[in-house]
């Protein structure tokens, strides 16, 4: 893979950009957003810097791109954090000033629709960070989850290796942001079930690429993904969103990656625990188990066809479930299927 640069890290007391390049949900849920900002200040010691579109829903794509470019250009800002995801960041990245981004690399944190931005920075040769959300994770009801917070702190402030650990509890049923009375209550959590390993027992080292599977499919359709040769040898990360794509859709998306020649080039695949509940689709306990099992079978089926020798790990706490571990996108990862250990270099 082409060489990627780790940007310099912020320090406690620094100014960091807080942007909404996708959806301006802080404008709709100010109490949740202010809670996230308060934890950013009080618990992480960072000073948030807002931009004109941070609290604006439906802001013009060029204005959002202008804010993103300005965040990278500002020499007093040492990191950039997305407030939340959305669904149209693919229309924003073409308006970015790539020369500014290349000349001023900074750690960028986001997930979900922010896969667009992570992939864009990857193509510019800049390591970014899959995970972190001012609304979802710093603004989490009750308190920021300790596992999320420890991973986020390490990713923000350190450059060392960090061992990922399975969560002892997890959830995918957040409290309703419309009901501010729930902000002091912990969301529903379930006992952790650990990771599930498949494939050969060997150690794989590489650089991370991937993200939200639905968004990756959009990027492939828009021809925004690097050539197969440039991604060969990457450790592929995939996770699915609150839209709860069916197992058939998941298989077909992965099949398309296989037909493109991509899926077979990844020596290891890390699969996020699937979110299996949403306010519009409140699945029951048995339905949630069935959804997760069907998705795992779909991923297994695609890999059996296109990459049967890959090391595979299921149910990582990445993406749309709670807690959320941070991954260095384009950064180093070691997947040890012998000792069943995953380490990333922040």
TrEMBL record:
Keywords: Hydrolase. Residues 16-131 form the LD-carboxypeptidase N-terminal domain. Residues 205-335 form the LD-carboxypeptidase C-terminal domain. It holds the Pfam family Peptidase_S66. InterPro entries: Carboxypeptidase_A_C_sf, Class_I_gatase-like, LdcA_N, Peptidase_S66_N, Peptidase_S66C, S66_fam. Belongs to the peptidase S66 family. This is LD-carboxypeptidase. It comes from Micromonospora thermarum.
């Amino acid at each position: 893979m082409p060489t990627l640069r780790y940007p310099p890290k912020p320090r406690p007391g620094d100014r960091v950009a807080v942007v909404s390049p996708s959806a301006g949900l802080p404008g709709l849920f100010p109490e949740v957003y202010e809670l996230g900002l308060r934890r950013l200040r009080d618990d992480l010691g960072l000073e948030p810097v807002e931009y004109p579109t941070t609290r604006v829903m439906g802001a013009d794509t060029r204005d959002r791109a202008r804010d993103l470019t300005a965040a990278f250009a500002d020499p007093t800002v040492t990191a950039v954090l997305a407030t939340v995801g959305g669904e149209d960041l693919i229309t924003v990245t073409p308006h970015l000033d790539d020369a500014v981004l290349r000349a001023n690399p900074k750690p960028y944190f986001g997930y979900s629709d922010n896969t667009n931005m992570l992939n864009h920075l990857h193509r510019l040769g800049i390591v970014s960070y899959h995970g972190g959300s001012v609304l979802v994770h710093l603004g989490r009801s009750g308190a920021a989850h300790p596992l999320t917070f420890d991973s986020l702190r390490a990713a923000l402030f350190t450059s060392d290796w960090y061992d990922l650990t399975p969560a002892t509890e997890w959830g995918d049923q957040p409290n309703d942001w419309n009901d501010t009375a729930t902000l002091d209550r912990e969301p529903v959590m379930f006992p952790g079930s650990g990771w599930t390993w498949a494939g050969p027992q060997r150690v794989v080292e590489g650089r991370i690429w991937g993200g939200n599977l639905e968004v990756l499919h959009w990027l492939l359709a828009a021809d925004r993904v690097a050539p197969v040769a440039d991604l060969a040898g990457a450790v592929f990360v995939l996770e699915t969103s609150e839209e709860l794509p069916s197992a058939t859709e998941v298989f077909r998306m992965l099949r398309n990656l296989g037909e493109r020649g991509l899926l077979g080039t990844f020596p290891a695949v890390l699969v996020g625990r699937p979110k299996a509940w949403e306010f519009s689709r409140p699945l029951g306990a048995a339905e949630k188990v069935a959804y997760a099992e069907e998705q795992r079978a779909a991923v297994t089926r695609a890999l059996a066809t296109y990459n049967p020798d890959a090391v595979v790990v299921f149910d990582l706490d990445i993406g749309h479930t709670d807690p959320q571990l941070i991954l260095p996108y384009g950064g180093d990862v070691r997947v040890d299927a012998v000792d069943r250990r995953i380490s990333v270099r922040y």
